[in-house]
Amino acid sequence: PQSNPREIIENARRGGYAVGAYNMHNEETTEALLWAAEQADSPVFMQVGRAIIPHMGVTRAFDMTRRIAERSNAKYVIHLDHGSWDEVMEALKLGFSSVMYDGAHLPFEENIATTRKVVEIAHAFGVPVEAELGKIPDAGESVDWEDYYTDVEESRRFVAETGIDYLAISVGIVHGVIPGIPLAPINIQRIREIKAATGIPLVLHGASGLTEREIIEARAAGVHKFNADTDLRHAFRAGLEAVFARGDRQLEEAMAEGRARMVEATIHKMQQYGCAGKAAH
Ligand code: G3H
Ligand code: 13P
Ligand code: ZN
Ligand code: NA
């Protein structure tokens, strides 16, 4: 069964570490995340996100994840990543144990009003809510960071008025990475200020491409959930490419190699986030 996400995040907050949330894309990537969690003895957030939803829909993605996870010994929760209103409602009925409602594209007051309604409904299901304030650009977009950063005063009001459980913030992070091009440094001071203003656990999306030092500093500043996808997808893809570089091979052989490399990459993230060895806590 799914574990209690509030308890997992609260343990991370008390222990001064963070938990990883990773996107699955098919059976093999789902297995990779669960095998990594078992091998690293780590809790894991299995995210149904923006790539898999158009591919198989929320319901099929949930059914696949649950079916595979129930056979594993991992400590896991199934989480909806960047959900719309309709997707959150679908996820709650299906039995997700954690949801993100993403109203970051909305004007501030509307984001508050809609997120508050989501929280009321989700909490009636006993499910905690992650919401986003500030905007997270895609890697390679050129942006004026001041328009994208989470505003500290707004974050105080947003959290107080919506009752969310964890807040996703924008502090210089981007979704994705561009291989070979370093990302802008993230603003650790802004994380500290948002933490002081809100008092709730913070979430850093776009964690692929962060340096080890940024991860350590972000943890210390109040980040207790990292979302990472691209680095793990690249690890899986490198496994496929290595097999196909040897000739016309079976898909199963390629996917097995992709899965093996994704397990290793995920264990490495769990070590960096500090959640390796924490499944029992
Ligand atoms: O108030 C809730 C959101 O605006 C979306 O809900 O589709 O019922 O308007 P709705
Ligand atoms: P990356 O692909 O940059 O790791 O971002 C993942 C993410 O934020 C999913 O919500
Ligand atoms: Zn994200
Ligand atoms: Na990133």
From TrEMBL:
Active-site residues, Swiss-Prot/TrEMBL: D81 (proton donor)
Pathway assignment: Carbohydrate biosynthesis; Calvin cycle
GO MF annotation terms: aldehyde-lyase activity; zinc ion binding
Cofactor notes: Binds 2 Zn(2+) ions per subunit. One is catalytic and the other provides a structural contribution.
Binding site for Zn(2+) 2: D102, E132
Annotated dihydroxyacetone phosphate binding sites: G176, G206, A207, S208, N227, A228, D229, T230
CDD domains recorded: TBP_aldolase_IIB
UniProt cross-references to InterPro entries, sorted A to Z: Aldolase_TIM (IPR013785), Class_II_FBP_aldolase (IPR050246), FBA_II (IPR000771)
Cofactor requirement: Zn(2+)
Keywords recorded for this protein, A-Z: Calvin cycle, Metal-binding, Zinc
Binding site for Zn(2+) 1: H82, H175, H205
A biological-process GO annotation: reductive pentose-phosphate cycle
Keyword Acetylation: no
Gene3D superfamilies hit by this protein: Aldolase class I (3.20.20.70)
Protein name per the record: Class II fructose-bisphosphate aldolase
Organism: Thetidibacter halocola
